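Saturday, quiet lab. Running sequence design on the structure tokens for the scaffold JK sent over.
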């Protein structure tokens, strides 16, 4: 059964909503921080605490992100670009403008490659389920 998708998804990290089976299988894949491209890391962790994890992912032309999973997250294009994306919906090209943001409410799986002429930079912000006390 496919879960409803609320994500605004024309961005580099846009991905199809995962079925329950895909979400379970995603755990065998690396997360964005662990995934890289041809043995090189593409993301760095900027913040990680009980409430949030923030990563910056940088993709020079020709560089991508191997198949990986995302927890629910907010994405923000610091410097957008054009990418080839492969996910549960197939393969497509997507162009993300600078300053574009999106919310992906479910676990998702995809890989991508920067096919543009300029370096793309994205922030991935994962809220954690930590309880806040006033």
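Result came back. Writing it out in full:
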């Amino acid at each position: 059964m496919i879960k409803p998708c609320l994500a605004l998804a024309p961005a580099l990290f846009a991905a199809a909503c995962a079925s329950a089976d895909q979400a379970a299988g995603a755990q065998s894949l690396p997360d964005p921080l662990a995934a890289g491209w041809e043995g090189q890391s593409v993301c760095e962790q900027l913040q990680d605490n009980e409430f949030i994890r923030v990563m910056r992912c940088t993709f020079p032309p020709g560089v991508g992100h191997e198949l990986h999973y995302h927890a629910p997250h907010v994405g923000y294009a610091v410097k957008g670009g054009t990418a080839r994306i492969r996910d549960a919906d197939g393969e497509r090209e997507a162009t993300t403008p600078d300053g574009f943001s999106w919310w992906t409410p479910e676990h998702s799986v995809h890989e991508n490659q920067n096919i543009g002429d300029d370096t793309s930079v994205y922030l991935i912000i994962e809220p954690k389920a930590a309880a806040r006390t006033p």
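Notes for JK: Residues 1-23 have pLDDT under 50 and may be disordered. Residues 52 and 127 are 5 Å apart (CA to CA). Ask whether to fix the surface positions before the next round.
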